[in-house]
Amino acid sequence: MSTPSQADFAGQHITVAGLGVSGISAARALAGLGARVTVVDGGDGDKQRAAARELAAEEITVRLGDGATLPEGTDLVVTSPGWKPDSPLFAAAAAAGVDVVGDVEIAWRLRGPDAAAWLGVTGTNGKTTTVRMLASILAAEGLHTAAVGNIGTPIIDVVLGQGQDGAQPYDVLAVELSSYQLHWAPSLRAHSAVVLNLAPDHLDWHGSMQAYAADKGRIYEGNTVACVYNAADKATEDLVREADVEEGCRAIGFTLGTPGPSQLGVVEGILVDRAFVENRQQQAQELAEVSDIAPGSGTPAPHNIANALAAAALARAFGVRPAAVRDGLRAFHPDAHRIQHVAERDGVTYIDDSKATNTHAAEASLAAYEHIVWIAGGLAKGATFDELVRKSAARLRGAVLIGADRALIREALARHAPDVPVVDLDRTDTGAMSEAVREAARLAEPGDTVLLAPACASMDMFVNYNKRGEAFADAVGELTARDH
Q: Would you give the distance in Å from CA 470 to the centre of its chain?
């Protein structure tokens, strides 16, 4: 039997913006609830037409290209994350008095009366790692859970699948939320949530840093147990102060140093909790050792220790035992291309952090190693590199630059690290990575780390950051093969 919130969609004319994963998921879900669905997409290529044919077979109307306007009689617009707030479609919706929401908002409205709690994670960097750490900890507690949302699993599909066909209902969901998704989710109210960090990103979409931060801060609205913030990033704490939360909800900090009351932190290589203990003024609970974070992959980078603390804070807010935090962190394995150890050759370590697609992520990556030959460059997306280079200059043994916007990094290096040798590869073909790795190996000395942390997007040379990371790993393999 459908819940009242699900039944409310029956008979409505709903326009879905975008033929991506979340758009198709939303269209099918809403059509399944009896809504009359039209999908609009500005593209009109082979991919869009193939998707349109599939949806048409399910009696879902699709309008492509110039037809991606607001259909007459639309009751609600459901947007995909990539559509900008100033899109003409949304201006037409506003003029017609039609609400615009996102797939996360729809999923929230579709929850049943016994729905799983949501533990929300957002931030400029580290979201996916933290959500997966959190899901691993929750599973170690014996809870039925899933990592969902911006991580790639459409949350509508998970919500509608709750308990259907004999499936075990979820106890709690670890939900990754982007700033785009939060912008379009006005009624979302998480059990507990964290903003991991804030740095300029997606400003072309949001219009300003203030608007970007405000959208991130929406994740705290209506929290019932804990708003988790980064004690090293005051902007995240400010968002907690501004949030309208339920009575009794607590502000919980995490820090790489010794924690104060109502914080989680690190003491002599031990992750400790001074927030969810009976006497937090005088007591601390050991949770895990730093070495439990992705064991077998070497000493974890500082930002991954921070991610683990954030995940532990959310899990503890949900009542998870200390032993499950330890066991969950031990069971967690990072995704590829995130501080991934590729090889060690002649005393030089090769690390793939192709996922470091902005300056904030690259800064965290560079801070993890003492002596670095840095491979960087790609599409800058409007970023500047002076602060990144200034903070990292003392660690740089050399730099190898690739990609369309490498000149911006070269100029920052000239200003703030003039003594660092720089190899500027004037090519943007995919084969440039092999040359970059050879040049980095030439600059490196035993004990150094050759680090791919591009601080840029990949699309000038590669399909995505995964392909860029694979090219790096292949190039390192070629180096080793030539020596045998």
A: 20
Tokens of residue 131, six digits:
């959500």
Helical pair 234-242 and 209-217, crossing angle rounded to 10 deg? 60
| CA pair distance 48, 41, nearest whole angstrom | 8
pLDDT of res. 194: 98
Q: Which helix (H) or strand (E) holds 119?
A: strand 117-122
pLDDT (tens digit per residue) in 310-366: 999 999 999 999 999 999 999 998 777 778 888 888 999 999 999 899 998 899 889
Q: What is the pLDDT of residue 4?
A: 47
In whole angstroms, how far apart are CA 449 and each of 119, 281, 303, 400? 36, 41, 17, 13
**Which residue, among 265, 131, 264, 127, has the nearest Cα to 196 in the 3D structure?**
127
Provide the terminal-to-terminal Cα distance of the chain, rounded to the nearest Å: 66
Q: Is the pLDDT of residue 459 over 70?
A: yes
66, 73 Cβ separation under 8 angstroms? no
Nearest alpha carbon to residue 379 among 472, 465, 458: 458
H/E element holding 317? helix 302-317
Helix (H, G, I), strand (E, B) or coil at 327: helix
pLDDT tens-place string over residues 287-300: 999 999 976 555 68
Token pair of 296 as six digits: 């077998």
Q: What is the pLDDT of residue 341?
A: 83
175 burial type by CB count under 10 A (0-12 exposed, 13-18 middle, 19+ buried): buried
pLDDT digits over 124-171, tens only? Answer: 888 988 999 999 999 999 999 999 988 867 888 888 876 565 678 899
Task: Return d(Cα 200, Cα 197) in angstroms, integer.
Answer: 10
Q: Give the predicted TM-score (pTM) of the model.
A: 0.77
**Region for residue 403 given its phi and psi (left: phi exceeds 0; alpha: psi -120 to 50; beta: otherwise):** left
Instruction: Report yes or no: 316 and 138 within 8 Å, Cβ to Cβ.
Output: no
For tokens 């992959």, what's the residue? 297
Residues 1 and 78: beta-carbon distance below 8 Å: no
pLDDT score, position 166: 61
DSSP 166-186: GPPPPSEEEEE--HHHHHT-T
Q: What count of other Cβ atoms lies within 10 Å of the Cβ of residue 128? A: 20
Alpha carbons 313 and 206: distance in angstroms, whole number: 29
